[in-house]
Amino acid sequence: MQCWGLTDPGCVRTQNQDAFHMEALDRNTVLGVVCDGMGGAKSGNVASTLAIDVFVQEVKRSWNPAMDWEAADQMLRSAVKLANFTVYDQAMQFEEFTGMGTTLVAALVRGREVTVVNVGDSRAYVCDRGGIKRLTVDHSLVQMMVERGELTPEMARHYPGKNLITRAIGTEPVVDCDLFHHKVDRGDCLLLCSDGLSNMMDDQEILFEVVHGFNKQQCCQRLLEIAQNRGGPDNITSVLIAV
DSSP character for 14? Predict the structure, then answer.
């Protein structure tokens, strides 16, 4: 497996509150994480960086190549729980961090099996020559409205409240995360990204760049440039894992 990542403030914001991490846990396993912080200029970047640090360290502390998938799922849930508690605790202790939080989407790619854990509206996609599939479901106001039939997916892309999320790391003492499992084949790619990218590109555009782009090494840069060329109003982050 190979992986690449890139983050950028975008064209409007001066500070980057996104963060990412990618690391090989062993010869057969890769962990990728993307966080999109919120809470103002003083604390959004603190929330995203702290959540990633705590989440990754807890996964590395608990990781055992011999663990089964049930144990791996529990490991990811526990890492989310610890990251949430840590960010929330800092927000409660320090006035300048009041209200901070962050999304978190992470993928554990183990051979031909992928487990994705998600809180918020950062996303995970799997791309192959047969198409693109979004693995995650946004924890957002517009997603709730789509599920209730009040908005179509296309209407949701342009809805004024599309950035309002209903679940985040660090905003409450306890948070629920979603887990998704997916099988991949050699040549498939997994993309993790913040909404600064997914709001600027539709699924088919992402698929084209990931699968049919000139080379995988430049894919994150190409995605960034497209988002920037369309105004880049938010921070833009992507992590690409090629199986």
Answer: S
The average pLDDT across 157-173 equals 88
What is the residue whose two structure tokens read 């342009």? 158
Which residues does 68 contact at the CB level (< 8 Å), separation at least 6? none
Q: Per 3-state DSSP, what percentage of the chain is helix, strand, and coil (rounded to 5)?
A: 35, 30, 35
What's the residue count for the chain? 243
Band (25; pLDDT cuts 50, 70, 90): very high
Instruction: For residues 191 and 204, give the distance between their C-alpha atoms in angstroms, rounded to a whole number.
Output: 13
Measured between its terminal Cα atoms, the distance across the chain in Å is: 5
Q: How far apart are CA 28 and CA 208, in angstroms?
A: 27
From CA 66, how far away is CA 239, in angstroms rounded? 26
Domain boundary assignment for the chain: 2-137+166-242
Architecture of the domain spanning 2-137+166-242? 4-Layer Sandwich (3.60)
Q: Measure the CA–CA gap between 157 and 113, rounded to whole angstroms.
A: 30
70-90: per-residue pLDDT in tens?
999 999 999 999 999 999 999
